[in-house]
Design brief:
Number of helices: 18
Number of strands: 13
Distance between the termini: 61 Å
Helix content: 40-55%
Structural class: alpha/beta
Radius of gyration: 31 Å
């Protein structure tokens, strides 16, 4: 049974090789309007299309879309000399249509299809008999042609060569690696600066609303099960659930954009006045006017994207900006406490990604990958909506793929967040063990190399690839190698030294203006971890500005000279890197 399935899959792949995408260039016969390109699907075994538009003659499009051209009775009185014939799909074979068109002098045949475009096939004898190109055009594109140019249209059929790799891959690479690097760096800096701020003893809701969330193995298992369940539901009920995902994206991305811009806005010198005392749910915290303006700006950007999300010319810029902000917010908020948790999460999602890309085509009736079908949007979707949980960049090279199959190159948020959580853990561990960010830099470089391998596989296989198939081994193996090389695998695996609840302040208060004479000796005899655990909490607040954000990667660390009767510890300084 498995062999039969494999044979069917190979036959389907062979059939797909026979069909190719091409371009129909439509120009008004009066010459008063610029031309426009439309996607066509043709079979090169009927006749090859030239690659250069300059070598293709413009021919008149003969509109017979009201007929099927299945019998000689459908032929008009005038012949088709030097014309491209446009007919309806109908119930007869492609060979019957093209034989009648070619026998009547046509230079090409375009078949209008209301349903999904399928390659116009035939047998070997029929291929040898026919010498004119045969292509399929969607009914929606035909309506657009008549709306723009009327029925007096000149057309050219050609198939430009596909580039080996589109330049938009460079943009996606820079966005992905930049997001992972910045998110991982911000997560590590945020973690250590939160420890500096623990001595404030401020447990109010305003201080607790942005606390990090430690991920447990149970949470990982529940998350993966929910991902599988949601992906299957999207595959079967895409037209209904896509709007739910769009709404979730709008809410999450606006929150992420606010979180990313807040540290910068707090540094501005204007609009520092606060809201008067009140009992409203959020305003009782008396936020500053500039923060309210920032929240209004973030909501406005999200609403603009939601309204114009299907504008292919520029809406992708807003979507990518919101997506990057969302990823940075998640990398800052979600924290993996041990390398063991990192390994479990990455391996489980590795299996999840490979299964839904490579295995599900053998389980679905259409033979399509569930992951690719959901990410790119089903071709039979009545809404034509696309999931926004991806970075997307339009193709920069002139290509038939930019019109037909894949006008955008995509990279899912999961391919950024999942390895990014490991990068963030590496940076936090660097801070803990006082290394010169060697784990962080090595894991970030490994992510970039894994992404390059993904792009190479995409070029050679010409199909959607599970990026985690390449990213997970690169990042996990690199992190393990660095830990073994530095002989820190035990601490790296268990996250030894990370303090979840208690503060790890480098400033040890004393009772007098100067430390006792034996303070250095007493402290130096204790391990650094014990020293930090036993040091009492300062009672005075470090001299940070009132509106300074400890989560900002550029926020300043507390200054010991501004702390009342507080002396620096002579042993450990978590805020610095050796």
């Amino acid at each position: 049974m498995a062999a039969a399935r494999l044979a069917v899959a190979l036959l389907l792949l062979a059939a797909q090789v026979a069909c190719e995408f091409g371009v129909l260039r439509a120009v008004s016969q009066t010459g008063g309007t610029r031309g426009r390109d439309y996607c066509i699907l043709y079979n090169p075994q009927w006749a090859h299309l030239p690659q250069d538009l300059n070598k293709v003659a413009l021919l008149k499009l003969r509109d017979l879309s009201s007929t099927q051209l299945c019998s000689p009775l459908d032929l008009p009185a005038e012949d088709f000399t030097n014309q491209v014939v446009l007919v309806a799909r109908g119930n007869c074979t492609f060979y019957e249509k093209v034989r009648l068109a070619q026998g009547n002098g046509a230079r090409g045949l375009v078949i209008v299809s209301i349903e999904k475009l399928v390659p116009p096939g035939g047998n070997k004898t029929q291929y040898e008999e026919i010498s004119i190109p045969v292509a399929l055009l969607s009914h929606r594109d035909l309506q657009d042609i008549f709306r723009r140019f009327g029925h007096a249209v000149m057309v050219s059929l050609y198939a430009p060569s596909e580039p080996v790799m589109d330049y938009n891959m460079v943009i996606i690479f820079l966005m992905a690696v930049g997001t992972v690097a910045l998110g991982g760096y911000w997560a590590g800096i945020r973690d250590v600066k939160k420890r500096y701020m623990k001595h404030k003893r401020d447990d109010g809701p305003e201080k607790q609303e942005d606390e990090a969330v430690d991920v447990t193995p149970v949470m990982i298992c529940v998350f993966v099960v929910m991902c599988c369940f949601m992906l299957v539901l999207l595959y079967y009920f895409y037209d209904r659930l896509v709007y739910v995902i769009i709404g979730i994206f709008c809410l999450a991305s606006s929150t992420g954009l606010y979180s990313c811009l807040a540290p910068c806005v707090r540094r501005l010198p204007f609009c520092t006045c606060r809201v008067p005392d009140n009992n409203l749910p959020y305003f009782h915290k008396r936020p500053q006017a500039r923060m309210l303006l920032l929240a209004l700006f973030c909501v406005t950007v999200t609403v603009v994207w939601g309204i114009f999300r299907n504008e292919d010319q520029w809406a992708w810029v807003l979507q990518d900006a919101l997506g990057i902000a969302f990823c940075l917010y998640m990398l800052k908020t979600i924290r993996l406490p041990t390398f063991k948790a990192c390994t479990l999460l990455l391996l489980v999602l590795f299996i999840y990604d490979v299964f839904f890309v490579f295995i599900t085509p053998f389980l679905t009736k259409s033979g399509n990958s569930i992951m690719v079908e959901v990410a790119t949007g089903p071709t039979n979707s009545s809404t034509q909506e696309k999931l926004p949980m991806v970075l997307k960049v339009p193709r920069l090279n002139t290509s038939s793929l930019s019109l037909c199959d894949r006008p955008f190159s995509l990279l899912g948020f999961g391919d950024i967040l999942v390895p990014g959580l490991l990068v963030a853990y590496c940076h936090r561990f660097d801070v803990q063990v006082q290394s010169p960010r060697i784990y962080f830099v090595a894991c970030t470089i490994a992510y970039g190399l894994g992404l390059l391998v993904t792009f190479v596989a995409l070029v050679f296989m010409q199909s959607g690839q599970p990026a985690l198939l390449y990213l997970v081994p690169c990042t996990l193996m690199t992190s393990c190698t660095v830990a073994l090389w530095r002989r820190e695998m035990g601490a790296f695996w268990t996250g030894t030294g990370f303090v979840k609840d208690g503060p790890q302040s480098p400033w040890a208060p004393t009772k007098g203006p100067a430390p006792p004479r034996n303070a250095d000796d007493a402290l130096s005899q204790q391990p650094p971890s014990e020293e930090l655990a036993k040091s009492p909490l300062p009672t005075e607040e470090a001299a940070l500005p009132e509106d300074a954000d400890p989560d900002s990667p550029g926020a300043s660390t507390p200054n010991p000279t501004n702390v009342g009767q507080v002396q620096p510890s002579p042993v450990v300084q978590p805020g610095t890197s050796a």
